[in-house]
Amino acid sequence: MRLEQDRFVVTYDASKATFESLVAIIETAGFTAELVTGDATVSAKKTSAGIRDPIFTAVLAQAKRENRPIVLDFEASWCVPCQRMDRETFPDPTVSRLLDRCIFLKIDTDQHPDLAKGFGVVGLPDFRFLAPDGSERKRLLDFQNATAFAQVLKEFLEEVSTERHSLNTKEASEHTKRSTPIEPSKPGK
């Protein structure tokens, strides 16, 4: 188990438990889950679809409009590791440069408890990395030094960028198929 990366493997007997029941338990603990069997991966990615907070709704609309990922930083003024992140991690030039590529939203959980509850925040700091469509891709808990945070952020941005590139390539291909003029056949040919 490598908790510093919020990722671990659960091996289970499918005759005694279902993927859905394990996902429910894992999500109750505040994690996301994916099932990997051979070459197939089935994700149980959380989405932000049910969250109706006006601040988050505006940020999500901006992310969709600008096609930019979102980084949520759930924090509180009394949280010592949160203050440490503000002093040590966020001012780091690499972290700052990577965050500039995202919509970065700091959320005080004392001022926005419903938003924190909607995301299942149970400890601080809690970082959520969301694709432009609002789907949660990664979660980090507790203090992260600049090197570790930058690495996770870089990997997240690469993942989202690859997805956008794949989607844009597919859309361009579909558009080309639809917009390619068909020459009428000429008589005698």
Overall description:
With 189 residues, the chain is an alpha+beta fold. It folds into 2 domains: 9-44, no CATH class; 54-170, Glutaredoxin (3-Layer(aba) Sandwich), CATH 3.40.30. The protein is built from 6 helices and 6 strands. It has helices at 19-28, 54-66, 80-89, 93-99, 113-118, 146-179; strands at 33-37, 40-44, 70-75, 103-108, 126-130, 136-141.
Q: Characteristics of this structure?
A:
189 residues, Glutaredoxin, two-stranded antiparallel sheet, globular, disordered N terminus
Provide the CATH architecture of the largest domain. Answer: 3-Layer(aba) Sandwich
- What is the count of DSSP helices, taking H or I runs of 4+ residues? 6
Coarse morphology: globular
User: What is the CATH homologous superfamily assignment of the largest domain?
Assistant: Glutaredoxin
Note the topology:
Blueprint lengths: L18 H10 L4 E5 L2 E5 L9 H13 L3 E6 L4 H10 L3 H7 L3 E6 L4 H6 L7 E5 L5 E6 L4 H34 L10
Parallel strand pairs: 3-4
Antiparallel strand pairs: 1-2, 3-5, 5-6
Helix pairs in contact: 4-6
TL;DR of this structure?
The protein has 189 residues and is α+β, with helices and mostly antiparallel strands. Helix content is 42%, strand content 17%. It is built from 6 helices and 6 strands, in the order αββαβααβαββα.
